[in-house]
Amino acid sequence: MPAVPFEYAAPATLTEALELLSTRGEDAKPLAGGQSLVPMLTLRLARPAIVVDLDRLRELRTVRRDNGMLEIGALVRHGAIERGEGALGACPLLQEAAPLIGNVRVRALGTIGGSVAHADPAAEFPAVVRALDGTVVAQSARGRREIAAADFFVGILTTALQPGELVVGILLPVPGARTGSAIEEFSRRVGDFAIAAAAAVVELDAAGRVARARVAMAGVGPVPQRLTRVEEALTGETPTGDTIRKALAARPLEIEPDGDVHASAAYRRHLAGVLAARALDRAAARAAGSVGP
Known about the structure:
With about 290 residues, the chain is α+β, with helices and mostly antiparallel strands. It has three domains: about 5-55, Uridine Diphospho-n-acetylenolpyruvylglucosamine Reductase, domain 2, CATH 3.30.43.10; about 60-175, 2-Layer Sandwich (Uridine Diphospho-n-acetylenolpyruvylglucosamine Reductase, domain 3); about 180-290, CO dehydrogenase flavoprotein, C-terminal domain (Enolase-like, domain 1, 2-Layer Sandwich), CATH 3.30.390. It is about 30% helix and about 25% strand. The chain has helices at about 15-25, 35-40, 80-85, 90-95, 105-110, 110-120, 125-130, 150, 230-235, 240-250, 265-290, and strands at about 5-10, 30, 50-55, 65, 70-75, 135-140, 145-150, 155, 160, 165-175, 180-185, 195-205, 210-220, 225. The protein has a five-stranded antiparallel β-sheet with strand order 4-5-10-6-7. It has a four-stranded antiparallel β-sheet with strand order 11-12-13-14. It is globular, with a radius of gyration of 19 Å. It starts with 6 loop residues before the first strand and ends in a 5-residue tail after the last helix. The relative contact order is 0.12. The mean pLDDT is about 95.
């Protein structure tokens, strides 16, 4: 099925792109890597009057590390993250998550900004950004603003972006000493969207106890969801496998899984606990062996 006819624009600068998005409003759709938008156009799930191709915006391909923060341009490709190019190597959780996305072709074209802006609840990068307490940087012709990941994801394929706004970058804290991370995912086939996934970060104090734990889930609700009750229960504890399993078993998980042809809601809920335990266990083990970023 061919896409509905649309205009095409390829602005040379971010300013031009933002002005075009502002002028055309809801009739315009930005195109980053195209791994989500192009199928939606083909299936006529998206019917923009104009597609604004961002490929020429080289300023959105930069990566900077400064004052303990990593700023990743929205057009940085999944493949570059997978390889840990340059400063991207400072975020091992992103690097571990990238190979789980699609296939080599998808990772060669897909972008982190596109993944976050698309807000598929089963996607890996939104959950990783939530687990890392990341911030989404948005910009429009009116100016720039920073949105905490906790506030950015609103619902299925829905974000806090306002009309005319574009995701231009992601801000992530660089992990410090005694910090480990891990992601665990279950999918029907390699490269498929996750039936469920867990991204965990564990920070240990000098005595080997949990100073802070973070775990975010994908595929088990309308948005990537943090397990805050489990995080609180683990704080101050020595993170053994038994301690982690008890924390997960003793508290209801803050997830809202739905059933579909791939898995029932009950199965997804059970799977979420299993994957969260595995991710937390591996993250804690890595934290124990970590001496710095």
